[in-house]
């Protein structure tokens, strides 16, 4: 009798071990050819249609699906203002932009890799449209295709309904506000049934504070590390809202309206300068001189990293003129109304695709000014600039005229 029970127990243990071994083996085989993903999926729609055809034929069930939210469209921008006779060449390519079709996808089984929120299919192929390269970089040059970067011998499996809102560089304020948060719009019909949201591991106070506007608390976040790979049985993946630095109007309007309410309505009209003194790079080396000039013209000086999200919204809602070097603080143009904007660029980093396009979508009066990357005959550190105060004065005079 006792011997029989022992045999049964041992068989159960062996069955349990065998089941675990089979699951582990299945996870390993799914990652063939092991060194790197098997390939790239350039259209999630086509992949779902092809796989559902096979699945339906075999099992008469529908697994993954997608819903179209916005069609492809083209947007035209007016030329920006400046003191220069000719438009800077970097702006010329930003006057016409195409925004791709936007969908919400549901995958019945898929992997998520890294804090970038990369999605890998069950057959070990990377979905290109969730990687935010969009022609600016080759996906095969990214970390996801480094040898054995995505290969794991043990993979956590999560059955709960989960949605990806992490995007490349979404620990950064701009990319969080303009790339990640708009994805919640595409999830709205399902948001109450979603248990967890995938975000990058590196979070700041603005991440947690902003998610509270959607009623999402920190205990509902799955924080992905750079090398994490997790298998999700029920995964919702919204399209990325646009190419890097070029969010479409629906994304801008959605996030803007979520944060603006009667409590942060325009109360006054300040002249505002946003300093980058605490930033890692792209400094104005003669900023003390610049600040003195601006203060003499009635400007208030702010370092946005020292303020809560609610305080930043209030500062920008009250602004009549905003002056800033190119940087994430200008993301707060999202909250501006009827104001003028002066963006200052280093010649090392001229990126009009972020804040020129944002200001244009909101109908703001946008100006730009170039700093100098040489001073006293020496090349400055990358991104740093010397700002000619005569040019600044001339630009301000034109803005105020």
Automatic annotation (TrEMBL):
Coiled coil: none annotated. Residues 173-338 form the Glycosyltransferase 61 catalytic domain. InterPro entries: Glyco_transf_61_cat, Glycosyltransferase_61. The keyword Iron does not apply. Keywords: Glycoprotein, Glycosyltransferase, Transferase. One of its GO terms (molecular function) is glycosyltransferase activity. This is Glycosyltransferase 61 catalytic domain-containing protein. It comes from Dulcicalothrix desertica PCC 7102.
């Amino acid at each position: 009798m006792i011997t029989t029970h022992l045999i049964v127990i041992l068989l159960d243990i062996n069955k349990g071990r065998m089941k675990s071994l089979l699951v582990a083996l299945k996870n390993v085989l799914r990652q063939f050819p092991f060194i790197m993903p098997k390939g790239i999926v350039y259209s999630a729609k086509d992949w779902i249609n092809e796989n559902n055809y096979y699945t339906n034929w075999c099992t008469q069930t529908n697994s993954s699906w997608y819903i179209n939210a916005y069609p492809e469209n083209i947007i035209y921008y007016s030329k920006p203002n400046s003191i220069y006779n000719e438009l800077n060449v970097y702006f010329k390519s930003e006057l016409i932009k195409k925004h791709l079709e936007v969908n919400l996808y549901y995958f019945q089984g898929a992997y998520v890799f890294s804090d970038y929120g990369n999605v890998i299919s069950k057959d070990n192929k990377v979905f290109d449209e969730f990687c935010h390269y969009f022609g600016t970089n080759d996906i095969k040059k990214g970390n996801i295709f480094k040898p054995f970067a995505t290969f794991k011998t043990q993979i956590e499996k999560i059955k709960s309904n989960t949605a990806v809102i992490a995007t490349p560089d979404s620990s950064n304020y701009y990319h969080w506000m303009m790339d990640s948060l708009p994805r919640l719009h595409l999830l709205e019909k399902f948001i109450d049934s979603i248990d967890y949201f995938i975000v990058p591991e590196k979070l700041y106070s603005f991440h947690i504070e902003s998610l509270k506007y959607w009623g999402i608390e920190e205990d509902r976040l799955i924080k992905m590390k750079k090398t994490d790979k997790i298998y999700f049985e029920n995964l919702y993946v919204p399209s990325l809202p646009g190419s890097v630095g070029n969010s479409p109007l629906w994304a801008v309007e959605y996030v803007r309206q979520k944060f603006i309410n009667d409590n942060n309505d325009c109360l006054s009209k300040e002249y505002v300068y946003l300093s980058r003194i605490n930033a890692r790079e792209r400094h104005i080396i003669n900023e003390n001189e610049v600040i003195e000039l601006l203060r003499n013209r009635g400007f208030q000086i702010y370092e946005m990293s020292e303020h809560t999200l609610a305080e930043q919204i209030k500062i920008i809602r009250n602004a009549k003129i905003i002056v800033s070097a190119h940087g994430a603080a200008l993301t707060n143009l999202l909250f501006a109304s009827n104001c003028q904007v002066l963006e200052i660029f280093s010649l090392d980093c001229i990126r009009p695709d972020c804040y020129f396009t944002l200001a244009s979508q909101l109908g703001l009066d946008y100006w730009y000014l170039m700093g100098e990357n040489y001073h006293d005959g020496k090349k400055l550190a990358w991104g740093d600039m010397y700002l000619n105060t005569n040019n600044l004065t001339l630009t301000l005079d034109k803005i105020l005229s």
